[in-house]
Write a sequence for this structure.
C-alpha cells in the first residue's frame, strides 16, 4: 500500500517549509599562532597549524 494524503496541501502551506532555507556566512575564528581568519576545527591555510601543532610544513614565499 502506498501513502495517500487525506487532504490537498496548498501551495502556501507547501512553500512555507522552504521559506527559511537560505545561505549563511561561514563562521570564522582567528588562528592561535598567526592570527589569520580560518574556519573552526580545520588546519590554518596560512601557517599550516592545527590545535597549536605544526601539521603541514609551509614554505616561505
Amino acid at each position: 500500500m502506498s501513502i495517500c494524503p487525506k487532504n490537498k496541501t496548498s501551495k502556501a502551506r507547501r512553500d512555507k517549509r522552504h521559506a527559511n532555507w537560505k545561505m549563511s556566512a561561514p563562521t570564522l575564528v582567528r588562528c592561535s599562532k598567526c592570527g589569520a581568519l580560518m574556519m573552526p576545527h580545520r588546519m590554518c591555510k596560512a601557517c599550516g597549524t592545527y590545535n597549536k601543532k605544526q601539521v603541514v610544513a609551509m614554505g616561505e614565499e
